[in-house]
Amino acid sequence: MSDHHPHEEAATMSPYAARIRAIEALLLERGILTEPEVQDRISYMESRSPANGAKLVARAWVDEDFKERLLSDGKAAASELGIDPTHPAEFVVVENTPEVHNLIVCTLCSCYPRAILGRPPDWYKSFNYRSRAVREPRAVMREFGFEPSEDVEVIVHDSTADVRYMVLPMRPEGTENLSEEELAELVTRDSLVGVSVPRYAGS
Ligand code: FE
User: CATH no. for residue 139?
Assistant: First the structure.
């Protein structure tokens, strides 16, 4: 990621990566961007991770008031936990309940709450996921090893440039004695997208 060898890499790079590298080189050459600015941006993206989402979820599980704030103003709630949510898009958190399971997709491209969770997984960007999540969400979730029961309504949220979604999963049973940190460890990236749910094996 940090090594820049544009000419050596050119042969094995995808056409898209090669194009990006060419644009980057041009922006640097014209003085529109500086190398430190590019590195800052990379560091920023690398500092975002699903661990941020897990922190938000674990706090919501132990603090009902925080949960209400997370669901009503996701960015403000993230700021409370020291997560800088700066991004022009809205950050909306949708809650799983015994009646409703939420699934996130971007049918158009790969919109994702990157300011909070970092880069989306490759499968999220795949045509397969984008085209099937809306049409057959249950079949998609089954492939991730998760199947909500038939009486649970599945709601699919299509992300856009303006709105990015994250799922607030349900707290697994048997976790009453876990600390907030231990709870956060149960929250997987997949469960924040809704293709799976946090699981607790018990102690
Ligand atoms: Fe998108």
Answer: 3.90.330.10
Residues 34 and 59 both lie in one domain:
no
Q: Which residues form the catalytic set?
A: 106, 109-111
Report yes or no on 1 lying in a domain.
no
**How far, in Å, from the CA of 164 to the mean position of ligand 1?**
9
pLDDT for residue 59: 98
Distance 125 CA to ligand 1 centre (A): 8
Give me the domain span that covers residue 10: 6-46
For position 139, what pLDDT does the model report? 97
Reported as a single tens digit per residue, the pLDDT across 86-138 is: 888 999 999 999 999 999 999 999 999 999 999 999 999 999 999 999 999 99
Rounded Cα gap, residues 44 and 41, in angstroms: 5
Residues 106 and 149 occupy one common structural domain: yes
CA–centroid distance, 88 to ligand 1, in Å, is 14
| CA of residue 52 to ligand 1 center, whole Å | 21
- Taking CA atoms, 158 is separated from 83, 101, 136, 191, in Å, by 24, 14, 14, 16
pTM: 0.84
If asked whether residues 41 and 53 sit together in one domain, one would say no
The tokens describing 9, both together, are 């890499």
